[in-house]
Design brief:
Number of helices: 6
Number of domains: 1
Distance between the termini: 71 Å
Shape: globular
Helix content: 10-25%
Strand content: 25-35%
Structural class: mainly beta
Number of strands: 33
């Protein structure tokens, strides 16, 4: 009897120990987030006429991990310049966007997309491209009419502008400069507040397309002043840009799992995160961030529109300055679970495996610790994978997540078997634009047509007369003002071809390519003064 009790007691103890071990190794779903910063020298505020830069495009994760994933690649934030005392209240409004993946991306792949990312006062509205903005309810446009299509050769999908699938480390060149496409207005939507005439225009420099694509209507920025007249003149419709911008990579969510190891330490595993790398193991990520004086393009275009000589659209580098990159950098990437308070979230010891450097005065990148990062195999050539396993070391606020190489037996099983790819993916809902109102009156002149994109979606689009596109019917422009705008754009369509140089070219690297399906040709007879407008995007 005693032996039976002893055996039973030993079994109970073993069960308790096992249960304790399971509890000890219980994992929590977590995330990695934060910023990677690129210091660059300040320049004179006279260079408030826009910017351009070249940033690497690459697949940060091998597989899209689901709808919570959100991160940009390297980019910048362009705010209106403030002269005089800083306003007491928050007046956040800018052009940001860039390459990346977002929670509302409906047709994601490992290849990033590009959005324009204009923000009206304190995010009351934002505009990501023609027909794309805050929310999906067209009864509340919230910025979806904030961008007008300018190019007759590039189709802008509502889900973001697609790059060629498989893009890995090539440089994507883009920038914003103002064009005087409209006239300044003394009133805005009948209110006694002015609207400027700066149409901030997206210029691209890629292997397969060069030139202007689309622009923010001035009304997108000034609309808030109808109810807040004291703020008139504070925004990008009329103000110069602040040339001293942040240059960062903003990451809001990369999936991770956190658990307690057998030795009592906190261990984390992060979804394999990759960066592009050349043969020397270096990642070249940012190149030639440039700021412009307004004279770089504005004066020549304005003179042309007033009856002067045509201008090619090539930006005058005599009115530009390249920001010097000193080769330093910083990181605030953290690993944490959702229940951890912000002040208690601990950073990744980024410098243990990444060293920022300047390849030259205008080029930023990282050198990697070859013992801690993993070079890609033949299927992932041109990429390095950052450390996947981290252990929390140190005490209190000085604790850091340090990269570690764990014995598989020492790692909690829940972390070893964790998957960062959804077992099932919810079929995406299509983007659908209204069928009536400004979309139908006066309506398209040709179409519908279809474009099958590399992300597995199909875009339905039609050709609109430029001044009749829905965005311009919602830009606080009279019929006469739209006709004047139409005449100016016809000048551009005739003279500014897609094979000309506009932005100053890079001095190193190769250019990225757009998805071939977004490159379109106008139908015969519609080559000048007409633009493609997407009306639907759905899974193919």
């Amino acid at each position: 009897m005693n032996s039976i009790l002893r055996t039973l007691w030993i079994a109970i103890l073993a069960l308790l120990v096992a249960l304790g071990a399971v509890q000890h190794a219980r994992s929590q779903v977590g995330q990695m987030d934060g910023y990677l910063g690129v210091p660059n020298d300040r320049v004179d505020t006279a260079f408030g006429g826009g910017f351009s830069l070249y940033v690497a495009a690459w697949p940060l994760l091998a597989d899209h991990p689901g709808p919570r994933f959100q991160t940009g690649l390297f980019g910048t934030w362009m705010h209106a310049r403030i002269d005089g005392p800083k306003p007491k209240e928050r007046l956040y409004s800018d052009i940001e966007g860039g390459l990346g993946w977002w929670r509302d991306t409906r047709f994601p792949t490992a290849t990033p997309k590009f959005i324009m990312g204009g923000v009206a006062l304190n995010f009351v509205a934002w505009a990501n491209g023609p027909g794309a903005g805050k929310g999906r309810d067209w009864s509340k446009p919230n910025g979806k009419y904030g961008v007008a299509q300018l190019s007759p050769w590039v189709l802008w999908p509502p889900d973001g502008l697609n790059l060629e699938q498989g893009t890995c480390g090539q440089l994507f060149g883009y920038g914003y400069l103002p064009l005087p496409l409209t006239e300044p207005k003394a009133t805005t939507a009948g209110a006694d507040v002015p609207t400027g005439n700066q149409c901030w225009t997206l210029f691209l420099n890629t292997e397969t397309f060069k030139g202007p694509v689309a622009f923010f209507t001035p009304y997108f920025f000034s609309r808030v002043t109808i109810d807040r007249p004291e703020l008139a003149g504070h925004f990008l419709d009329s103000r110069p840009a602040d040339p001293n911008r942040a240059l960062q990579m903003e990451t809001q969510y990369v999936p991770a799992v956190v658990a307690r190891a057998k030795d009592g330490s906190d261990v984390a595993r992060v979804a394999p995160t990759r960066f592009p790398a050349n043969d020397g193991g270096e990642s070249i990520l940012v190149h030639r961030i440039t700021s412009y004086e307004r004279e770089a393009l504005w004066d020549r275009v304005h003179g042309w529109f007033e009856g002067g000589d045509p201008t090619s659209g090539r930006i005058d580098v005599a009115h530009s300055i390249v920001h010097r990159i000193p080769g330093k950098g910083w990181s605030t990437w953290r690993i944490h679970t959702p229940d951890v308070q912000k002040e208690d979230r601990r950073q990744v010891d980024w410098q243990r495996f990444a060293t920022p450097f300047a390849l030259d005065d205008a080029t930023f990148g990282y050198r990697w610790d070859a013992e801690l990062v993993k070079t890609g195999d033949a299927s992932e050539s041109g990429l390095v994978t950052l450390p996947e396993w981290f252990q929390l070391e140190g005490e209190g606020k000085k604790a850091r997540w340090n990269p570690v190489t764990l014995d598989p037996g020492a790692a909690p099983r829940t972390l070893r078997t964790a998957s960062f790819v959804p077992e099932k993916r919810t079929p995406p809902e299509p983007y659908v634009t209204p069928e009536d109102g400004c979309w139908a009156t006066p309506g398209p002149v040709a179409g519908p047509f279809e474009a099958k994109l590399g992300d597995g979606s199909v875009v339905t689009y039609s050709w609109y007369r430029f001044a009749d596109q829905p965005a311009l019917q919602n830009a606080d422009l009279s019929a006469e003002e739209r006709e004047r705008l139409q005449a100016r754009v016809e000048l551009l369509h005739r003279a500014w071809r897609k094979d000309l140089e506009y932005l100053p070219p890079p001095t190193r690297g190769t250019l990225a390519r757009l998805d071939p399906a977004v490159l379109v040709e106008p139908p015969e007879g519609l080559e000048v003064g007409y633009v493609p407008i997407a009306t639907r995007q759905e899974k193919r």
